[in-house]
Amino acid sequence: MGERAKARKSAEERGDLTAVQRVKRSAEIYGLNHPSIVGKRKQLMRELSQLLEALADTLVAAKASGTLDSVADTLPVDKQLKFIESKTKRSSPYALTARSYLTDNGYGRLCVSPEEDCESIK
Questions:
Q1: CB 73 within 8 A of CB 60
Q2: How many other CB atoms sit within 10 Å of the CB of residue 48?
């Protein structure tokens, strides 16, 4: 064990590590910072960002044209919402990343509720 590792272990035993350091250390221990995992989480966040942008663009365009009420049934909004929601289900890969991203950006209401998630398991 190197000097740095010994110093860190000593600091951990004394409880001197900050929350950020503990998170970084946990990521190392559990392999959460593996490049392929990080890449997949980033890809999911990009997809969600694009989906939210497309959804907003659809609604803004429909509202601006004054056709929101008349074409509401033909807009792909429901399909887009269901797709976003599906990314937050427990069975979906990186669901916690999706939930965190949506919640942090003010779209937490688009996450599937725990009750609905349990219903989908049955």
A1: no
A2: 21
Q: Report the C-alpha gap between 116 and 95 in whole angstroms.
A: 14
3-state SS record for 79-122:
HHHHHHHHCCCCCCCCHHHHHHHHHHCCCHHHCCCHHHHHHHHC
* Mean pLDDT score, 70-94: 82
Identify the CA nearest to 51 among candidates 110, 109, 114: 110
Which tokens belong to 87? 């990314």
Which pLDDT belongs to residue 64?
77
Residues in Cβ contact with 88 at an 8 Å cutoff, skipping those fewer than 6 apart: 95, 98, 99, 102, 110, 111, 112
What pLDDT is recorded for position 24?
84
pLDDT of residue 73: 57
**Both tokens of residue 19?**
């929350």
The answer to whether 25 touches 18, Cβ cutoff 8 Å, is no
Q: What do you get for the CA distance between the two ends of the chain, in Å?
A: 49
Phi/psi of residue 54, nearest 5 degrees: -65, -40
